[in-house]
Amino acid sequence: MAVPRGPSGRPDQPSFRNDAPLSGLEIWLNGTHDELDAALTALDSAGRLVWRSERRRLHGAGDAGRHSVYVRLAVAESVRPEPRRRPAPAGDLFDLEIA
Known about the structure:
- This protein has one helix and four strands, in the order βαβββ.
- The protein is α+β, with helices and mostly antiparallel strands.
- It has a domain of about 50 residues.
């Protein structure tokens, strides 16, 4: 299997001396071109795409027409919303075993 090459012709791999420290949410997406486009659009509206790899074709028997892309997304941390509370039931409660 050939080693993927970057734009410089060198092997496409992390460079711990030259790359910025990783930050943000890291996601691998696998799907068709249309599915990847929709997912990237949704993720872009949820945060800021910091980095996106080139799409790579998947090579499995069940992966015809599917590709993979790696993205890093900067998202703001937020406070978790309060869980929804169910409203109190209207009317009297009754025992199902008796009914």
